[in-house]
Amino acid sequence: MEEDTKIRRETESRLLEKVGEVITAIQAAKHVDQVIRALHSLAVLLFPLDSSLLSGSIDQPYRDQVLSVKAPSEKERSDSFQAFYQGAAFPALARVLLFDVASNWLACFPFSAQKHVYDVFFVNGVVNEVIQVLVPGLQQNRISGLNIDAVQANIERLLVLCLLENNGVCQMARKFGYLCKPRCVSDKKLREDVSRVAQIVTSVPDKARLTATPSLSSHSFFKQIILQLLSGVEAVTMSTKNEMDGTFLFIGETFSRICRRGSSDVLLREVTPQILRHVQSCLLSSNGRVSTDLIESNPGSQFWLKLMEVIVDSYAMERISEQLLNQLVAVDASDVEAYWTLWLLFNRLLKHQTSIRSIFLDKFLLWKVFPVSCLRWILQFAVLECPPTTNVQTESHVTDSLLDTVQRLAAVWSKREFVQSVSVEQQAYVTAGIGLCLEKMCKEELDKTKDVMHSILQGVSFRLESPAYLVRKMASSIALAFSKVIDPKNPLFLDEDSCNEENIDWEFGLTAPKKGTLSISNRMEKHTDELKTSITSELAKNSKYETNNMVNDNEKCKSKKLSVFELVDPDEIIDPAMLTCESVSDDNGEDNTSENSDSSSDSSLQPYDLTDDDMDLRRNFSQLVDVIGAMRKSDDADGVEKALDVAESLIRASPDELTHVTSDLVRTLVQIRCSDLAAEGEEESAEEKRQGALVALIVTCPFQSLDTLNKLLYSANVDVSQRIMILDVMTEAAQELAHTKTMKPKHQTGVLISTISEPQPWFLPSNAGPPGAGSWKEISGSGTPLKWSKSYERELPLKPSQIKIGKTRRWSLRSQNTQSHINWSQNKFPVYAAAFMLPAMQGFDKKRHGVDLLDRDFIVLGKLIYMLGVCMKCASMHPEASTLAPPLLDMLRVREICHHKEAYVRRAVLFAASCVLLALHPSYVASALIEGNVEISKGLEWIRLWSLEVADSETDRECYTMAMSCLQLHAEMALQASRALESAESTSSAKSVGLKSSLSRATIKIPYSNVQY
Amino acid sequence: MMSKAKRPPPDPVAVLRGHRASVTDASFHPSKPILFSGSSDGELRIWDVIQHRTVSSAWVHSAAHGIIAVATSPLIGTNKLISQGKDGTVKYWDIEEGDLSRSLPLLTIKTNAYHFCKLSLVKEPVTNLEPTYREAETLDDAGGRAAGTPEEFSKPYEGETHLGGSSYVAVVGEESSVVEIWDLKTGERVVQLPQNSFADNPSFSSKERGMCMAVQAFLPSGSEGFLNILAGYEDGSMLWWDIRNPGLPITSMKFHSEPVLSLCIDGSCNGGISGAADNKIVIYNLDHPVGSCVVKNEIVLERPGISGTSVRPDCKIAATAGWDHRVRIYNYRKGSPLAILKYHHATCNSVSYSTDCKLMASTSEDATIALWELYPP
């Protein structure tokens, strides 16, 4: 033993000397052949080298020297090899090789020389050591006098050679296996080494330059490493059963490092098919009767079982399991295969490691979003803990974990904050989780749990009020699943769509990628539509459900009765009435025949078309007062309906009395219960008519009706749906007012008092007329000289539209005037904008009986803000917009609104904010800045900051996109304003200097430019 | 006409416009192509139904009350006309001169009744369905038939009046549940039904039946010329009276659940049709010797309310005037529907047939009279 170490030391020191010689030789070298010769002299000592291979590539004097070097014996060589790589010699030489030689000489090396005296030190060396030298070299980028690019390219080339082409990683793994076999290294040391080497290996892609060969990119590099490890090591494991701890340790460490470096997808893409193949072969061999023992005893399984045991990094474990699930979906694994795959990899861990348990039962159920099939597997594996084919699901121990899971899920699900703050996908996922669990349960089990029933009911009930369709859909799906548990024969369908679906779609259609970006207004409109339908549909739900049942029952009864009826009942009681009926009809028959015989004219009595409708019988209202009267009689549904039919057209006719009845009419229309009066399925049309009438009313008679509507909006006598309806109607009316084209005569500036002191005699016709008219001339009557009146004529210029063809001209008192005075006024809204917006903005934060916009009735709040936004848009570019924008922005800035818990409200705020941006005229913004109007500039700045904030931290995807577009609008507005400002400055600077100072008070920021005004 | 596809119902052949208020009743001249009509503003118009023009017009009752009914009958004379106003009077006119405005009525009966029940002249079984004014319309059709002026044809009717004659009018009296018979010749009330003054009668009363809403006087073939009266009451019941026994009706029946609004006895006086405020039209047979009334057909309507009924003199078809603005035509024998006539755009008040069965007039609240030609005899 002593001898050994002594000999080794000697060899080591000898080698070190040699290396020193070589290094000095290299540094002193003047010619590349000198370098080659120096390296060769060392290489010969270490590797079985055939010197003749070099001879062709070097010049004569050196060739002889090279060829004359004597190769050492086998024993000597392996000794020095060991000493060289384990001692300090290799690192010292490698540094010179990698930096000095690589940058100064390597380019001149002939190919064979490069391979045999340069690469050989790395490729044929001990990979572990080589790697530890090579990889850090990648990052040495500041060494003076070196060609860094050449150095790094060389290192990368060597890495590819060592690790990839030479199966280096596999060698390393085996090496670790040997290391631990004779217990020559302590366990701790081994672990440290393993982890260091694995760390170095996996860091290669990150350390390599961007321009490095594609095989060093993380994707392909990891892929090749993984393949090497899997294929090479698996083969080895088969032969040597045990004591591969070091190898497994290395593989596991490498895999977890790969995961940590974010390439778990690459890892699992390679690993999953292998496991799956293994599981499939197990399943095949067992003929479908799989048992845990069978799989555990399979030698192939041992590899995976062991591998999973050595991976201790819980983060890596999470990534692995997550990716595994995704990969299983990607390869379309069947439920059984997926279950056994999960079982094989995670079963032991799940039992022994709490971290794994929490990954599967907490993270994967509550925080992650997987496809629903994955969710099924997770539940099957981690919660039910039995293979999916077995029918026995109600074993007690199984149920416990199931109940526990349901309870936890339901507790989370039933919280209102969950809906408010979590993304829709996540919500759908958790909903699906509960649903799938419920499908596995029965009523007794449900009864055992404490709060599940309560929290499910609570969650369902408040979800049904949500404005988002998907949220309501989730509620109804859960309700359906829940009702199936309670009473399988009597499922509860809360949603019409799913009426005939046996299986619930737990994915809620979310898997299909949503494409395209809708504009803000589109989105909002979509929501209003949804809202409308939701209100009415919910009302109809219950009744529909009942009728459905009724129909079913009836059909059952019928089918039963039919068979009964076919039997002839001898004791049948004959109704005397039926007999008389028959006789009567007989009589008629006789009657007819006799009549027919004596008069053929009866046959001439062919009936006409007897179809009849009652279109003409509808009561026609011609007076608004009648309409109001009819609508108030809520017990006469027909009358109300007819009144609704005519209301809009009557209002549009704008009769004189309209202003007097407006208030009454508005109240009555708002109070009508469309759902009560209309037949089922026609509520929509009645609702439309009612809203149409209200819109017409606002349009024709804005001030009075708005006054009443605004009062109603915050009165305690209306419910949420009516408030929403009021806001909808106001929105629509604002839009209509903004888009109407009216023909209104220009105000005629005629003289009210005609002056008699005209400079012409009274008997002449007035001089009024188009400019260019000639003076009046008396017509000398041609006929009789006696006339009691005089005629005058004058010449008129042609109208622009007139073409003088022929002699016919047409005159009338006010003919042509009208044409020139028609004024197409485009937007009637701005006049009424204040009446629309200001009263509605006043009461949003009041909390009274039945009115609680900020909290409970957040939908109303959202609608209100949306309406204000639309109003703003309708008034855009008008001066009214500028006066109304500050109060609106003030309202939006209120913390309870802009940071409202519900995404619905935040969306509306973003919409309103972007409407403000659209509505403000740039010149107004500019003048506000010049005049130091702090209000407006602060408001605009707030919009920018707030949108940024939203864009940064928002869970709701729509909010995010809207915030982005809001920012864009702000940028555009700012640009326009700055342009306006420049032009204003150029003019104002000439006039006054004092304005400048006030400019600094207000700021407006333009993104993407550093200009600040 | 025999084509498989259903024919659309016909339009009126003519529409007579001129009334300024709801036309309450119309009646054809027994022999001439003339139509009389009365409106709720008291105007009586005489129309030429060939030229579709007003012949004359007169305010014969006060505008405030208006006319309830106009009636003609061969039994009271061909140029005679009865008008009933809501002012409590029945006026008996001679239209010889064709102008009512300048002449006074032959007779004014003050019934002091202010109700809605239309009066009724006596109906006699039609034995001879010979056209009465055929030559007035088409000369071709008259070929081979006995020619003569309408006046000549109508003479035999006048002669036939016997046993108290037939120039009676049945109206509802001051007491609205009592039917009164007035003699147009003398202008006196002949009898009251029920007659409560009879000592031997244990006071039969029709009071509990409510107001009398419709009345029809007729002479069934077996009655030896004694008037029979059919009266419909507010509670939906009908009473059949024989004038010889004014204390007690022959029979009573209840076909309707709502007030009986109109009654019409067919040309043979063996049956009739009734319309009410409910959704039923009832066609029934009257068996005079037995004194029974049997329902022949019951027609259920979609929309309730029949304000007028009429059976064509040849007993083939019957027409009803409905509150639903429609005139409906039925096969009188079978009770099957034949046509739904949609022209009026307000409640129809009455329908009536011309004696020759060719024309039908319907009157309506929309102030028009529509003339129809359906199923020519």
Automatic annotation (TrEMBL), chain A:
<feature type="domain" description="TELO2 ARM repeat">
    <location>
        <begin position="265"/>
        <end position="506"/>
    </location>
</feature>
<feature type="compositionally biased region" description="Acidic residues">
    <location>
        <begin position="584"/>
        <end position="593"/>
    </location>
</feature>
<keyword id="KW-0963">Cytoplasm</keyword>
<dbReference type="InterPro" id="IPR057348">
    <property type="entry name" value="TELO2_ARM"/>
</dbReference>
<dbReference type="InterPro" id="IPR038528">
    <property type="entry name" value="TEL2_C_sf"/>
</dbReference>
<dbReference type="InterPro" id="IPR019337">
    <property type="entry name" value="Telomere_length_regulation_dom"/>
</dbReference>
<dbReference type="GO" id="GO:0051879">
    <property type="term" value="F:Hsp90 protein binding"/>
</dbReference>
<dbReference type="InterPro" id="IPR051970">
    <property type="entry name" value="TEL2_Regulation"/>
</dbReference>
<dbReference type="GO" id="GO:0042162">
    <property type="term" value="F:telomeric DNA binding"/>
</dbReference>
<comment type="similarity">
    <text>Belongs to the TEL2 family.</text>
</comment>
<dbReference type="Pfam" id="PF25320">
    <property type="entry name" value="TELO2_ARM"/>
</dbReference>
<dbReference type="GO" id="GO:0005829">
    <property type="term" value="C:cytosol"/>
</dbReference>
<feature type="region of interest" description="Disordered">
    <location>
        <begin position="582"/>
        <end position="613"/>
    </location>
</feature>
<dbReference type="GO" id="GO:0051083">
    <property type="term" value="P:'de novo' cotranslational protein folding"/>
</dbReference>
<feature type="domain" description="Telomere length regulation protein conserved">
    <location>
        <begin position="623"/>
        <end position="734"/>
    </location>
</feature>
<dbReference type="Pfam" id="PF10193">
    <property type="entry name" value="Telomere_reg-2"/>
</dbReference>
<feature type="compositionally biased region" description="Low complexity">
    <location>
        <begin position="594"/>
        <end position="604"/>
    </location>
</feature>
<protein>
    <recommendedName>
        <fullName>Telomere length regulation protein TEL2 homolog</fullName>
    </recommendedName>
</protein>
TrEMBL record, chain B:
<feature type="repeat" description="WD">
    <location>
        <begin position="341"/>
        <end position="377"/>
    </location>
</feature>
<dbReference type="InterPro" id="IPR015943">
    <property type="entry name" value="WD40/YVTN_repeat-like_dom_sf"/>
</dbReference>
<keyword id="KW-0853">WD repeat</keyword>
<feature type="repeat" description="WD">
    <location>
        <begin position="81"/>
        <end position="103"/>
    </location>
</feature>
<dbReference type="Pfam" id="PF00400">
    <property type="entry name" value="WD40"/>
</dbReference>
<keyword id="KW-0677">Repeat</keyword>
<dbReference type="InterPro" id="IPR036322">
    <property type="entry name" value="WD40_repeat_dom_sf"/>
</dbReference>
<dbReference type="InterPro" id="IPR020472">
    <property type="entry name" value="WD40_PAC1"/>
</dbReference>
<protein>
    <recommendedName>
        <fullName>Protein DECREASED SIZE EXCLUSION LIMIT 1</fullName>
    </recommendedName>
</protein>
<dbReference type="InterPro" id="IPR001680">
    <property type="entry name" value="WD40_rpt"/>
</dbReference>
<feature type="repeat" description="WD">
    <location>
        <begin position="16"/>
        <end position="57"/>
    </location>
</feature>
<dbReference type="InterPro" id="IPR019775">
    <property type="entry name" value="WD40_repeat_CS"/>
</dbReference>
